[in-house]
Amino acid sequence: MRNSKGSLMRPDPLPLSASHPVVTPLSPSVVYASETPDALDDQYEGRVHGYTYSREGHPNADVVAKRLDAMEGMPGGVVTSSGMAAVSAVVLGLLKAGDHIIGANQLYGRSLRLMKDDLPRLGIATTLADPGDVEAVRGEIRPETKMILVEAVSNPTLALADIDGLAKLCQDRDILLVVDNTFTTPRGFKPFEHGADIVIHSITKLLAGHSDVMLGYAVARDPAINEQMRIFAITTGMTPSPFDCWLAERGMLSFELRFDRAQATAVLLADHLATMPGVKRVLYPMRDDHPDHALASLLLGTSGCNMVSFELEGGRGAANIFTREAEGLNFAPTLGDVGTTLSHPASSSHRALTADERTSLGLSEGFFRVSVGLEDPEVLLAVFTQAVAAATS
Ligand SMILES: Cc1ncc(COP(=O)(O)O)c(C=O)c1O
What we know:
This protein has 14 helices and 12 strands. It has helices at residues 37-44, 59-72, 83-94, 109-121, 134-140, 163-171, 185-188, 223-235, 242-253, 255-274, 293-300, 315-325, 355-361, 377-392; strands at 78-80, 100-104, 125-129, 145-151, 176-180, 198-202, 216-220, 279-283, 307-312, 330-331, 341-343, 367-371. Strand 5 (176-180), helix 7 (185-188) and strand 6 (198-202) form a beta-alpha-beta unit. Helix 3 (83-94) packs across helix 8 (223-235). The structure holds pyridoxal-5'-phosphate (PLP). Pyridoxal-5'-phosphate binds at residues 82-84, 87, 108, 151, 155, 180, 182-183, 202, 204, 214, 216.
């Protein structure tokens, strides 16, 4: 290969253009070449902006980070290769052996596993508590408690964390309040406005929104903490792929429209399910029969979320018929896709629990969590009507 300067392998520069592309270019380059050692010094010393090696940063990740920074109202966030990488960058990047962390008792399954198995192995003590009960959390605080990790709305019972109360608890004690805002999204809830210190997202879900990207994000109020998380993510190789970032940016352009549409349909679906014979109960935070409705109104206003949970009569047998009869809906353990997806905690996210443990969380064999998508609401409601009737008649 020979370019215009006659060198062997150096690629030709892109043709100059007086106009610019309307779509962010994809930059898969792993390395970035500099003109001279002095120029590289300028970059490393922060006198000019530039990239060196893509594990340390690349343009497509920065574009995604800036968009999310703007949505959460906090600069300096870090994009990681998955939502769990973001959780790990926060917890493992900031805590050390001898520290103690309190986690919400209904965290996402892998976050729970981190709390139960991995952190204790590394000498970080963990306790689980109900994040809706500030006094219960207060009772677990020790002198070495450094962090509280909660989800604003948790999976799959859609319980609310008392973020305002927890923030007050943390402020007095120099404890970091970390909020995983994946379910609620920045459109539904702004944790920093309620006193959070760090916000986490699985971009994989509603933000990217098409089930074709795996990415995460974490941002802190304190720039020094952002730097600490960034260095840890670089050192441990949590780097996101440029292509995933490129796809995520594209998905995020329509995120707000998708969220509004999905959550409006979720309201309709929750109310519809509540009227259906064969449905024992419906959980949706914006309904006044949800146990945390008052807290939900306080924190989420009228935005709600796109997740609806419900319990069918008839146990596993009814559940099997329901997923088979729910025509066009994927029975798949994810959320935030353009299409509505059904999740059955007893056979997926919560299968490692004993039946008794599941019962204590209210997760029977008839319990489903629905991530509402962008289908025509009338068509979607008709599918549920038919599938519930078939499963429970
Ligand atoms: C609330 C929450 N946090 C974090 C994660 C992990 O994200 P990822 O699957 O992108 O690693 C998930 C995944 O479902 C989640 O639901």
